[in-house]
Every structure is written in structure tokens, then in C-alpha cells.
Amino acid sequence: MSEPRGQFSSKIGFLMAASGSAVGLGNIWGFPTQAASNGGGAFVLAYLVLAFLLAYPALMAELVIGRHARANIVTALDQLGERPLTKRLGRAVGYYGVLIAGLILSFYAIVAGWMLAEFGKPVAHLIGWSGAEQWLGGDSLVRNLLVCGIFTAFTVAIIAKGVEDGIEAWSTRLMPLLFIILLGLILYVLVQPGATDGLKTYLIPDFRQLADPGLLLSAMGQAFFSLSLGVGTMLIYGSYLRKDDSLPRMGAAVTLLDISIAFTAGLLILPAMYVAQHQGIAIYGDNGELLAGPGLIFQVLPSLFANMGGAGTWLSVAFFALMSIAALTSSISMLEAPVSVVTERTRLKRSGAAWSIGAVIFVISALIIANMSTLFDATVSLTTEYSQPLLGIALCLFVGWIMHRNQLLNELKAGHQDIEHSLFWKIWPFYVRIICPLLILLAFIQTLR
């Protein structure tokens, strides 16, 4: 007999958990640097529009399936199918989504471990532990395995405590802390010389660039992937919602929170990059493009903090605490996807499932660490560039073509009685059935070029 299912105890608990899932490392550094590399303010404007034209409808698909089935992604998609073929297809999509979530977490935990090491380095400096500071600043196999293992253990410990005591409790603690640290860093950076240039790049759009298909596709991809769509994390969170919660409103709130924090992160990252440039630190790579990803996080910003003296040490502590928290809130949802499948489809208890799956994911992480040059980029490409778009299309097709229209309506009416007379009901079913799959497919094809 499987364990009783958990449930979010409040709307705010769901919102903190869902927005925590969406706001991860990619959102903190990915969105701002994407904006800087794709037209600045024009990219921001396109992103804000496409987040509601594309990402919100796709998010709603996952929430509707999850709460309708009250089950993990495998069982949920299996239940939607009425024929053997659609049932088998549903299970296949579900298991593949769980596999991809696990693989994403395996490389995500490595990067998150680096964040923990970067957080520990200035802390060691402050307490005068020079040996630990030097070791944490290195790039040894042992260091990478240790910090990855610590981060994975944090994630597993939270998931093992369940929905209300684990996911909800920690999300409601971590997300406000993340936002406070983010705002504090922004206020400090904005008064530094050079910050104004970063703000101009970020906020002033060149409207002519909105006609660039490449910019629009980049904004579309960022809007879709920033909400953790495609691998069933939002589906399983939707399954823990109460029946009297309005799905359209909850989905809109999650989307607003996600884009708000992504936008706010841009107010830190872009000005910080130009502050670094003002201090003589290179923010452009050899190819002339703005540095992003690891080049930004582990080269530009640490150099900036080092130039700020004593204040820079505290800023480094705060910044990498911010990054570690963002990583943890996202990793929680990624681990919940496979754990929910195991606990609901087997007799294994949640704690045993969480630690067993966590161990498997750590082994995969260790293999990647031992073969970084060949496995890391390949795993990232397989999961985020190829698998997530295809899974996103599949989930839209399931809710648009396999789930009956009256099932959709009844599920939405459970928390929103007059939904059938709303603009949402007149537009969304068609959107998720036709427009979303086509747009996601278009973005996917663009990444193959």
C-alpha cells in the first residue's frame, strides 16, 4: 500500500514552492545575460509578453493534468488515455519525463555544489581559515564530489519530510530570504560607478530589434524553460493543490512571480557586469559577446567582489548564498518528480525513496564530474535543449487532444465556478491544443540549426 498523498496547506505555500521551482540558477544568471546578448530592453519586453502567450498556457496544462489525476506524472498520463495505445504512450512520456528530471538534477547538483564552494570560500576567509579557503577555491575532484554530495543531501533531506513539512515549509522560508538578499545586493550595486550603463542596456529597448526572429525565439525559449515546464515538476505540484483553488489564478500568480524575480535579477546582474567593466574587468569574451553562464558567475563577479575590499567579501557571501538558495528551491521540485512516482507506484516509503533516488542521482553526478569534458555538456544538451521541448509538446497534446473538454471544464470549475464564461476558457483550450505545441516546436527546430 502506498503512502497517503500530501497536499499544500495554503495558497502561499504552493506559490512559494512553485515559484521556487521556477526560479533557479538559470533564471538568476540566464535571463539577464540572455537579455544583454539579445537586444537588452527589447528582449525583456518580448519575454514579458511571451511568458503569458506561451509559458502560462503550458503551465496551466501541467497544473490541470496534475490536479485532475491527483497523481504523479506516469499515473496521471496513463489515466488520461482511454485506449491501450494512449495509455502506453502516457506511461512512456511520464517515465521519460522522470528520467530527464533526474538527469537535469544530476548536472544541476554539480553546479549548485560549485555555488556552495564559492559561498564557503569567503566565509572561510572571514573566520581566518586560509587552508579551507584555498581548498574551496580550487577545482579538485574531491572538492567537486564533496560539495555536490552535500547539496544532494540537503535536497533529499527536504523531500524526505514530505509535501507540507518538507517542500512547503522550506520553500516558504527560502523564497522570502532569496528575495531579501536579491534586493539588498541590487541596492548596493546600483550606487556603484558604471551601474547606470548596465541599467540602460537592460531597460531601454530598441524596438527595431523586435522584428528579429532570433530575438523572439530566444525570448520564447527563456519564457518556457524558466517555468520548469516539460518534466512534470509543475504537474506534481499541481496534484498537491486543493480542489477549491482556482487554477487559472494560481498559474497566473506563479508566472507573475517567476518573471518578476527574473526581471529583478536583471537589475542586479547587468549593472554588476558594467560595474566590473568600469573597474577594468573584462565582461566580453574573445568572440565579442557578453560573458554568460559559468564565465560570468565564476570569473566576472568574483573579480568584482575582490576589487571591493572588505565589503566585497560580504557581498560574495550574500551573492553565493542567493545562488545556493535558488539552486535548492529548484532541485527540490526536480527530485520530487521521481520520488512521487516511486512512492505512489511501489510500496517504498517516501524517506527510503528519496534517499535511494538521491543516491542514484549522486552516482550519475559523480560519473559526470569524473568525465566533465565529455559528459557535462552532452547531458545539458540532451535534457534542456532536446528533451524538455519535446516533453512540453507532449504534455500540451495530452491536455489538448486526449483529455476530454468536459473533464477540462469540470477541473477548472472546481475552484472557479464561472470559468466557462471567462476569456480564459474561450482562448486557452485552443491555445494549448494548437498554438503552444506549434510555438514550442518552432523554438525547438531553431535550436537544432
UniProtKB/TrEMBL annotation:
Record field: transmembrane: 12-31, 43-65, 93-116, 141-163, 175-195, 215-238, 250-274, 311-332, 353-374, 386-403, 423-445
Pfam family, one: SNF
CC terms in the record's Gene Ontology section: membrane
Keywords: Membrane, Transmembrane, Transmembrane helix, Transport
Entry's localization field: Membrane
Keyword Transport: yes
Membrane topology: Multi-pass membrane protein
Primary localization class, coarse: membrane
NCBIfam families registered for this protein in UniProt: Na_transp
Name of this protein: NSS family neurotransmitter:Na+ symporter
